[in-house]
Write a structure and sequence with these properties.
The protein is α+β, with helices and mostly antiparallel strands. The chain has 7 helices and 9 strands. Helix content is 45%, strand content 26%. The protein has a 9-stranded antiparallel β-sheet, sandwiched between helices.
């Protein structure tokens, strides 16, 4: 497996980043740490209030509704409200801290703006054909800007398909109870990298994970399976397109070799990608929370944590470098 840290270009970039960290990022992280302490004191105060008043509130609710079930709803509502209240210092600190530091972090690589809890448009994601059906969509860190003359958007995306249903049953006293439940199916969690190309595509070309024999059951409306020349690539990916000629023009041997290189950079994770209009969209599933440069319970001046975020950024921007998308030539 390729180790990115042994790469000479990575080491040179990391040395430059270490200087940038001391000059630009560290002073802002120190200010964030002062802000973190204020929010942490607020959190402790709320915790103490909860420890004192929550048991009293529960006792009062239970006594006033001992003969019916109305108190259960009040208890659940109060508990949910208390959890949200306790989480509020953490949420507002992270939002302010990230807005303070993340633009400067990304600007080490290019020219970027940062938006907290933003995400890509649903119509763009659905047109890409990279994801299954979903009805709930949220985002976390969102960067948009220019890297080596390439327009790029980096977005943490989380998609679910949530089915809501009701359960009805009767108690021993023949009282009918109705409860709302939900079934959640994770569709995608990870990073989406949207690149605006210097060319328009006539059709739509989609490359997904190879599912072996299950490919026989895969059907994307309007697209046909593309037979590729690179057998190793065929073992990992499955290609579909509305334009067979354009698909073979895009998925050249050189381009496929670069995509295989990206799978090494992303530690073997299956990358999905789609060409549509003048855009190339790549989706990389990951379980970890990316770009977490700010911590609520630990000091923000934590170089080890910052170095990890640097590696994540470096790997994302390697998409442009490896695919040579900044070169005004065919792929």
């Amino acid at each position: 497996m390729f180790d990115i840290k042994t790469d000479k270009i990575f080491q040179e970039k990391k040395a430059a980043f270490d200087r940038y960290y001391e000059d630009v990022l560290r002073p802002k992280l120190e200010e964030n740490d002062k802000m973190r302490r204020r929010y942490f004191l607020m959190f402790i105060g709320l915790m103490l209030m909860a420890v004192i008043f929550y048991p009293l509130m529960l006792t009062a609710i239970i006594k006033s509704s001992s003969e019916d079930l109305s108190g259960l709803g009040i208890i659940l509502g109060a508990s949910g409200g208390l959890i949200l209240l306790l989480k509020s210092p953490i949420y507002f600190f992270k939002k302010k801290a990230k807005n303070t530091i993340m633009t400067d972090f990304a600007n080490f690589f290019g020219t970027f703006s940062y938006h907290h809890e933003n995400y890509l448009p649903d119509n763009l994601l659905r047109e890409s054909c990279l994801f299954g059906s979903y009805n709930t969509h949220s985002g976390d860190d969102y960067f948009t800007g220019v890297y080596k003359d390439v327009n790029i958007t980096i977005s943490e995306e989380f998609m679910q398909d949530i089915t809501v249903y009701t359960d009805e049953h009767y108690t021993g006293e023949n009282i009918k109870l109705t409860r709302r439940n939900s079934k959640k199916k994770k569709i995608f969690k990870g990073i989406c990298i949207l690149l605006t190309m210097n060319k328009n595509f006539k059709g739509r070309t989609v490359v997904l994970e190879d599912k072996g024999i299950f490919n026989l059951f895969k059907h994307i409306p309007g697209l046909q399976r593309v037979k590729l020349e690179d057998m190793y690539f065929e073992d990992i990916f499955e290609a579909y397109s509305s334009d067979q000629i354009e698909a073979r023009y895009l998925l050249t041997t050189a381009f496929m070799e670069r995509m295989l290189r990206l799978t090494e950079l992303y530690e073997g994770k299956t990358i999905r990608f789609s060409f549509n209009d003048n855009r190339l969209l790549l989706a990389v599933p990951t379980k970890q929370d990316m770009f977490e440069a700010c911590s609520f319970f630990r000091s923000n001046v934590n170089k080890k944590k910052i170095d990890k975020v640097f590696e994540q950024f470096y790997t994302v921007f390697s998409v442009v470098d490896v695919l040579k998308l900044n070169q005004k030539i065919g792929m």
